[in-house]
Amino acid sequence: MPHTITVLPGDGIGPEVMDLALHVLDAAAAKFDFQISRSTHLVGGAALDATQNETPLPQETIAASEQADAILFGSVGGPKWENLPPDIQPERGALLPLRKHFGLFANLRPGSCHPSLTHASPVKNELIPNGFDVLCVRELTGGIYFGTPKGREERNGEPVAFDTMVYKKSEIENILHVAFKAAQGRDKRLTSVDKANVLATSVLWRETANEIAAQYPDVTMDHLYVDNAAMQLVKRPDSFDVIVTENLFGDILSDEMAMISGSLGMLPSASLGNMKDDGLYFGMYEPSGGSAPDIAGKGIANPIAQILSVSMMLRYSLGETAAADAIDHAVQATIDSGLRTGDLFTGAEGESKVNTIEMGTAILAHLDKVSPSRQGPLSPR
Ligand code: IPM
Ligand code: MG
User: Fold this and answer.
1) CA 249 – ligand 2 centroid, Å
2) 198: left (phi over 0), alpha (psi -120 to 50) or beta
3) Tens digit of each residue's pLDDT (9 = 90 or more) over 22-59
4) DSSP 3-state of 293
5) pLDDT band at residue 378 under the 50/70/90 scheme
6) CB contact at 8 A, 285 and 270
7) What is the atom index within ligand 1 of the atom nearest the CA of 99?
8) CA-wise closest residue to 150 among 206, 86, 213
9) Alpha carbon of 9 to those of 15, 18, 20, 59, 288: distances in Å?
10) What ligand is nearest to the CA atom of residue 291?
11) Burial class (CB in 10 A: 0-12, 13-18, 19+), 136
């Protein structure tokens, strides 16, 4: 049986990096002997353009994705669509409904910086001599993003706007289980981030985290307030293993993690629903970096985030672990060989500047060399 995926390239650099990622996926399928059945669909600004601004998320895209094992997503948004009504803008009108529709409550965002790339990080290099490797587990379908009431009205002659941060205990339990399991597969340390000194949702979060912790005695958990977590991340990123937090805090902290990693062009992400009986997840996989309209169409974007999104998809949704490991190794080998797209290039000795296609081609060549028996995942795990 082939694995079925939908490919949603979207806008900006999405289509150009997706192209390379699909080459890598095809090469991995051939090498590791599995089949992929894939179809490409419209999303974001590309969908708005094709539907005369009717929707950034056509029904047909949803219907095709419902039949698939996973969604491989590029990126959406750009200046062209910024002045449309907020509800149909690519980000709000496509990303959030996709997450909600498919119940993708668990967002895994690795933020890692390889020792050979620490110079690209804005963190003082003496603080991270060995780089770092953090995984942010963000709750993605609850909290203030989706809570009601949400809106705007007139009170005593002045406009008032309101959002509601709400969490059910079961939602907190679900994401905590994902985070503890992720920690078990890594360094077995989990930091739960909340604002329990102020927010009722955070008090419930912390209580629940402590209860769930009892089921994972092999994992050490600590708690940080979100403001403190933001500080500790720039001061000692290498002391974290897995971070778990609610939707809005995770949005903010994962951007901070991406920034200190040195380049957004390196970071994939996975948004997962419930684990199925076969131990795999329906998921949506996308680069953390967004559509980067400023460099779109120039052929210089770093394809690595999209390629590592393929690897995460193989790992979590398709169960092709050996292929995922091989792709991670091929990316690492390419970085080790000194190739750098513009986002990573510093001109240091041993570096050579390459464009999107050259980077992708080098990764394909390394993938070809990786022995299928070579085991052990590199980050992101
Ligand atoms: C992200 C983005 C989205 C979010 C926006 C585009 C709705 O910032 O995926 O982090 O806030 O979740
Ligand atoms: Mg964000």
Assistant:
1) 10
2) alpha
3) 999 999 999 999 999 999 999 999 999 999 999 999 99
4) coil
5) very low
6) yes
7) 12
8) 86
9) 5, 6, 11, 16, 14
10) 1
11) buried
Q: Are residues 128 and 172 in the same domain?
A: yes
CA distance 95 to 269: 13
Query: Where a domain ends, among 211, 245, 261?
Result: 261
User: Nearest CA to 331 among 267, 264, 259, 261?
Assistant: 267
> Can you give the residue range of the structural domain that contains 91?
1-109+266-381
Instruction: Note the residue count of the chain.
Output: 381
Of all atoms in ligand 1, which is nearest to the CA of residue 247? 12
Active site residues: 145, 195, 227, 251, 255
User: Measured between alpha carbons, how far is 324 from 188 in angstroms, rounded to an integer?
Assistant: 22
- Ligand 1, atom 9, residue with closest C-alpha: 251
Given a cut of 60, is residue 326 above it in pLDDT?
Answer: yes
CATH number for the domain harbouring residue 271: 3.40.718.10
- What span, in angstroms and rounded, lies between the C-alpha atoms of 357 and 43? 24
Place of tokens 């994972």: 216
| Helix 226-235 vs helix 247-260: crossing angle, to nearest 10 | 10
The ligand with the least distance to the CA atom of 286 is: 1
What is the distance between the alpha carbons of residues 248 and 254, in angstroms, rounded to a whole number?
Answer: 10
Q: Is 43 in the pocket of ligand 1 (CB under 6 A)?
A: no
Q: Which atom of ligand 1 is nearest to the CA of 92?
A: 7
Cis before 380 (ω within 30): yes
